[in-house]
Amino acid sequence: MPTITPGVVETTTSPPETSSTEIPATTRPPTESPSTEKTTMPTMTPGVVETTTSPPETSSTEIPATTRPPTESPSTEKTTTPTITPGVVETTTSPPETSSTEIPATTRPPTESPSTEKTTMPTMTPGVVETTTSPPETSSTEIPATTRPPTESPSTEKTTTPTITPGEEETTTPPETPTTTPCNATNFYLIFHLHQQNETFWLCNCTLARCIEDNIIEIIPYECPPLQNITCANGMPPVEVWDENYCCKRHACDCYCEGWGDPHYMTFDGLSYSHQGNCTYVLMEETVPKYNFKIYVDNVRCDPTEDVSCPRAVIVSFNSLVITLKNQNLMGPSKLEAIKDGKTLPLPYAMNGVSVSSSSLKLILKIPQLQIVVTFGIIGFTVHLPYQFFGGNTQGHCGTCNNNQADDCMIPGGQLVHDCAVMADFWPAKDIYRPDCPVPTVVPTGSPKPQPTMKPCNSDSACDLLTSSLFAECHEFVSPDRFYQSCVFDSCHMSNPTVECTSLQVYAETCSEFGVCIYWRNHTTMCGKIDCSPGKVYKPCGPASQPSCDDNPTEPVLNVMVEGCFCPEGQILFSKESTLCVDKCGCLDPEGIVREFNERFEYNCQDCLCEETTKTVTCKPKVCSNPGAISCNEPGFIIANETDPDDSCCSKLTCRCDSRTCPPSDMKCNVGYTPVVTVPDGKCCPEYTCESKKVCVHKGLEYEPGTTIPVVDCQECNCTMEVDPKSNLFKVRCGWMSCPETCEHGYEYVDTDPYACCGQCVQTHCAVSINGSVQLTNHHPPIPCLKVDGTFMVTKSKIQCPPFQQSNCQPVSIQHTTKDQACKVETMLKTITYKGCQSVEEVEMTYCEGSCNTYSKYSELEASMKHTCTCCRESRTSNRTVDLFCLNGITTPYTYTHVHQCQCSETDCRTRRPLV
Question: Boundaries of each VWFD domain copy (predicted)?
Fold first, then answer.
């Protein structure tokens, strides 16, 4: 195919002659022999390409409500094809003339055999291409009301083609409306050169074609089958979705997955199971990535007395955005937070096509372009996905979303297992690291293991509400059985009684999907009353997408109902990013008061206006009269412009004190005194005086009360608290110095200097502590003591023993010791239990263990046997505190001793008395 130089392609087509015939509803119309269309393409040169086509004879029929209407054939089409660059492409098309025949809507309309179009393509060189086409006999059909009608060809179509910048992240975005391929000469020319013989391909506008041979194609109209009623396995009502070619509609089941309690799951296809995993798992991800979307669930142990887990958080990943919906307090009143990049988000939040809001009971995450709604509450979550975008393309804890429960228990790789609780362990979140998450290595085979026998118990009366007349209106739409069983399980195995309320809450929300709204909380005291913030009211069923002044009527509305706090009747949210309910839309003034559009008001001495075009408040300063001149003569006063007390919006000139303009002070006080600053009434600049510091002063130095003051003449002076009335300082009292004559072991008190007030302790012996008693020596034996420069010191030498030779010992005289048995700190993990309360996790407990030396030796000094006993005991400890969780839901602190260091310490050697 040569290069097509930009130029003008002109095609002239004679208007077709059409006839209409009504065909019986019970017979198929005869197939008419196809005519042939021949196209001759001469040499192509830059310039004008002209194509002449003879008018085909066609018949037109109206197809029942299951097919797509045909695109009307234009009588004359002129196309100018410029160079294709990022910019504008303009196409001009003339309107077609057609006629139609109506066929009964209860039968399949006859389709006349399509004509055979034959195109002859000579060698293509730059020049003019002229094509002559024989008129084929064709039939045209009209599309039903259930499919998207074709777009009528406008006279002029202008399209801007954006440029995709390298490096930007490109994500598949679902089309908001179905699109079709336009039929024009350029498309036909390219299509004929891309397909093999007998190959069937899409031509345009929901029309198929089959390549016969030698550039001859067979046109095959695309017919939509009638809509079939289906039953959704998840109990949800079916919805209408487009097929993959966006030509026909069919019924399908949207993806609805939920989990609650400890925890109970219902997959997209309505299969129920329980899973007690303590890990972060893949709740849902795309089997074939299309929209870069996945959800994780973070399960943790949530009861100190039972081996059960609860969903602590749901993590939603969309493109490069990751938002965690988390309950920070599982054991008490819920504390729901939305977290991004480790920081708590202020709600409501909206960024990059994702919004997060709160209904007080739940966090609601929405992605409108994909019609996704994810909610997370106290101990539960729901996931709403449209089948149009995610049908048959999900995997994880929520299953496959194909209205087939048989393949929901699928592990990574596509293998099915017998139990979804087993399947759930095989879906840990690999890109979210949790060291306590084991990954199964062996896929179980055979029949499911029998469930362990649970201890018998009586469920709380709140569970009986599910099967009572309170929910009777919903029973015909959704069975309460699985919710009742989950409620009973939670009531028997959770110490927190409010957990069973989640089963009632989830069932009530499921009922709201069918338009059944039930006020159930006022029938139980355990589940409690919902307190809403000021300006909001409680509703058991309210829209997840609450209406606001920012709503665009053309944007899709996600029809999902949730329980929570909403604006009162007649009010809506001021904006999507606001929690303020208003009864009229307008602007918010700086005080948060709603102002109507074009409303004028005064604020902060400004004249303000609520502008409708910008939806913002603009203010201008208020104009005031010109104040008169004044003079300020006192030191420190300056002329200032201050608020007029008679008119708070205007100012006047006054004399204002500015201490920075006061003259500097060089006042200095004597030792023991400090300058004190005072400002008399009516003055601006400070005045300084010297006041006592409440200290003693001796020879120009200050002393605090109770301190010793050094003096001469062997006197000892102290600073007292007695005040001298003349100086207002504390008095100094003196007395003769007392000399301490008691010295340490090995020292003696000696009057060494006759002019000194006291003598001093002089060393005369070496002092050695042996077995707790101090011994004095000043010669070598038995303890080496040397005098060096007047100082006595004990010398110590190390005796080097020869290597141990086992052969030199008698066989029975060898004793072995183990180095590892030395006294040291040992560690163990232990669950602390105290007065019926227990720690949630095992606590690291430390203790001392190991052997220490114990011996008996003869002492020459004491002329008797010396017994020495040591034991391994703690030498350094600290107190630590851990929280214990009690069955009544109360948390109590418990303090225990933690050992940091152990050593061998001496102890009494007690001789065991012989038995008589």
Answer: 255-438
Instruction: Say whether 356 sits in a helix, a strand or coil.
Output: strand
The pTM for the full model equals 0.48
pLDDT of 668 over the 60 cut: yes
Measured between alpha carbons, how far is 102 from 115 in angstroms, rounded to an integer?
A: 22
Q: What percent of the chain has pLDDT over 90?
A: 26
* pLDDT at residue 128, rounded to an integer: 35
**Confidence category of residue 315, pLDDT binned at 50, 70, 90:** very high
Q: What's the pLDDT tens digit per position in 674-698?
A: 988 888 888 899 888 899 999 999 9
As a whole number of angstroms, the distance between CA 221 and CA 226 comes to 16
pLDDT tens digit sequence for 762-816:
888 888 777 777 777 765 556 777 777 777 777 766 666 677 666 666 555 555 5
> Structure tokens of 242?
């487009």
Neighbours of 77 (CB within 10 A): 22
Domain spans of the chain?
Answer: 1-161+178-226, 246-441, 537-583, 584-623, 747-794, 823-907
Backbone angles phi, psi at 507, to 5 degrees: -65, -40
> Which residues contact residue 198 at a Cβ distance below 8 angstroms, ignoring those fewer than 6 apart?
210, 211, 212
**CATH of span 246-441:** 3.40.1000.10
Instruction: In whole angstroms, give the CA distance from residue 401 to residue 288.
Output: 13
Angle at which helices 481-493 and 501-512 cross, to 10°:
160
C-alpha distances in Å from residue 290, one per residue of 204, 244, 321, 385:
25, 14, 16, 14
Q: CATH homologous superfamily of domain 823-907?
A: Cystine-knot cytokines (2.10.90.10)
Which tokens sit at 722?
């007695």
Place of tokens 């020319």: 189
**CA-only gyration radius of the chain, Å:** 47
CA separation for the pair 471, 484 (Å, rounded):
12
